[in-house]
Every structure is written in structure tokens, then in C-alpha cells.
Amino acid sequence: MGDDRASVVIVGGGVVGTSAAFHLAEAGVSDVLLLEQAELGSGSTVRAAGGFRAQFSDELNIAIALRSIAAFESFAERPGWDIGLHQDGYLFLLTDESDVELFQRTAELQRANGVPTEWLSPEQARERSPIVSVDDVLGATYCALDGHASPESVVQGYASGARARGAVIRTGVGVTGIRTAAGRVTGLITDDGVVETDTVVCTAGAWSREVAAMAGVDLPVTPVLRPVWYTEPVPDLPPGLPMTVDFSTGFYFHPEGPGLLFGMADPDQPPGFDQRMRDDWLERVGEVMERRAPAMLEMGVAGGWTGFYEVSPDHNALIGRAEEVDGFVYGTGFSGHGFLQSPAVGEILRDLVLGRAPFVDVSPLSASRFGRAETRRERAIV
Fold first, then answer.
1. CA angle, 309 then 375 then 55, to 5°
2. Band of the pLDDT at 17, cuts 50, 70, 90?
3. SS3 1
4. Together in a domain, 216 and 229
5. Do residues 232 and 287 both lie within one domain?
6. Which phi and psi angles does 67 have, rounded to 5°?
7. Residue 374: pLDDT above 90?
8. Quick check: 164 and 292 in contact, CB under 8 A?
9. Per-residue pLDDT tens for 116-142?
């Protein structure tokens, strides 16, 4: 690559980074450079389950999600890509009284903000997702706006749109340092040369803390391993099956090709980049499956993969401009919601770079909130 210059350098080629590149290039920034240490989407993005939803407990997350869902709905026209969009809804099954109270409150908040969330009885929930057992279910929420799409296709769509508008995307290039002078960014050191720039956008996902530290910025992002599996083809799969979530355990499933994709968090999984799973993880999932969706025990497991959640202390995103160093912008720490928030976050990062006011005030998501003890807890997480 050699020495180079760009007005904006994005570090991280996942769905958030490619969205930011697209939105910046679309806005007329002629020399956007995106650097990805491996291949596009090869970090957390292509290992995501691909779900998107507007059912959140935080009003700011609801606004970001609605903006993103609208972008997914029009993705075939802008930027112009088939992302395998399925809007069959999210169904949250609730078995604890405390969760029922939480979701009743959040459903009211969602409806007040334009989200058509429905409250369902256990019997109505089973009509939506016929393969579940609802013997211990107290209630459920469902939103028809929600659904799933292909994370890899969204990355490729944004990357293609960014390139078509003049952005340069370079893969296989790692960032080894960030240069600063007089309290502002002046460039990056890569394993393929130096890039002069006065603006760095960190969208490095689970690796964001290390990237930010190069500029003297603290982003409290922790990697946590999460597994995903998929079944063999399932004959006579109920049509329109929603993303179904057993909220108390985090067990979920949704249609994927001719079968089902499923997963569940392990609360005992230690944080870090160690990719070894507990030997009994799938067995623990099976125990929940036996209670919640026993028909799935008859479906063979065809394969699976692991990836990292990029977790923040309060399970809300970190979005903003660094207070420590001028010219360092970040969008990370999504705690499992990066894919679904990526279209709107790309817009927000564009506006932060260009000095515009984003469509929502994201100052509450600044990383500095932790130093001020102003955490913003997202409670509707799995």
C-alpha cells in the first residue's frame, strides 16, 4: 500500500464499518478508506444470527432500530442488493413474572414510539410458533416488523455501494498504530504502510478496545463467545415461523434455508478471545430445547459456528466522538445488536464525521458515560 492519505479511515470491515463507508461516500466524501485486517465481515458479522427487531426497552434503541428496519426494507433499491429479507416477526416467550412486568411496560413504550408490538396469550403464542411448548409460558410479545436477513449480504451490499461511490476498501491490512499530535489524530500505521488522516472511525467490533487504545482512547468493549447451530432440512416446517426467543434462558430459533438456525448464551462462558466452548454447551441447549421446543430434538444438527459478541458494561452501544483525542469517532459495543442497528449507525457515524446533527441524539451513548456513572441499561437482551 505504501504511504497514503485519506480524509476518513474506517477501521473494521464488518457490517457497521461498511455501512459507515457507504453513507460517507454517498454524502460526497471522495476519499473514504476502509481497512479490514482479514476479509469483509469475517469478524462477528457473518457469525451473527441475522435477526433484527424493534422490541427494546430503551427509547433510543427503538428509534435506531426503526430507522434500520426501514433501511433493510428498501435495501434492494438502496444501495441495491438482495439481503434475503424475511419479516416474520420476533416472538418473545415469557415465563417469569418479573419479565412479564418488564415486557408489558416496554410494549407500551414501543407502541408509543410507533412499534406495533402485540401482547399475546400463551395459546396465541403457540399459534405463531407451533413447535413450541407453552405449558409454563405466562405471556408473550410479537412484532411483525421484526425478522431476519443475511448479514453477509448486507456487508457485501454496503461495500459494493461504497465502492461505486468512490470509497476504497482494502482487506488483509491490519492497523498497528494510530498517530496523534497536539491532541488530535494525524494518521495510522498499518502493516502495509502509513496513512495520513485527521479522522479515524473505529468499527472494529470485539477488537475495538485494542484499536482505540492505540489512540489513547478507552472503549470498554469485551469479547464474549457465542455459538450458533443449524439443523438438517426439516420437512413440513410451519410457514411464517417467527424468530422465537425463550427470554429467561436466551434460547432462540428461526428458519434458515430448509431448516432452523438456533442458539443460546452460556452465562458461565468467560469473556475473552478464547474460542473454546464448554464441552456440554450443546447438551445444555438440548435440555432447554426439550422443555421449550421438544420437536427440535428430532431434527439433526447439521453444523454450526462460533463468533464474538462485543459487550459493553450496560449492554448498550458506544457511539460518539472521543473526548480524549479529536478526530477519533467510534461505533461499537453493540452487545449482540450490531447487525440490526448497522444501517442507522452508519448514518450516525457519517453525521458525526461531517459535523451534522444525527437523526437522534446519541450523546447518551458516549463512552464517557461510564466515567460519569451514567450507564444506560438495555434490559431486552438475550
1. 60
2. very high
3. coil
4. no
5. yes
6. -65, -40
7. no
8. no
9. 999 999 999 999 999 999 999 999 999
CA–CA dist 325, 329 (Å, integer): 9
If asked whether residues 178 and 235 sit together in one domain, one would say no
- SS3 category, 341: helix
Tell me, what CATH number does 301's domain have? 3.30.9.10
**Same domain, yes or no, for 302 and 233?**
yes
185, 202 Cβ separation under 8 angstroms:
no
CA-closest candidate to residue 57, choices 90, 106, 116: 106
143-187 pLDDT tens trace: 999 999 999 999 999 999 999 999 999 999 999 999 999 999 999
First vs last Cα of the chain: how many Å apart? 41
Beta bridge partners of 196: 5, 187
Q: Which residues contact 161 (CB under 8 A, 6 or more apart)?
A: 22, 25, 26, 78, 79, 80, 81
Concatenated DSSP letters of 106-132: HHHHHHHTT---EEE-HHHHHHHSTTS
Asked whether the beta carbons of 43 and 14 are under 8 A apart, the reply is yes
Cell numbers for 249, please give them.
Answer: 434462558
| 212 in Cβ contact with 330 (< 8 Å) | yes
> 175 in a domain, yes or no?
yes
One domain, residues 98 and 156: no
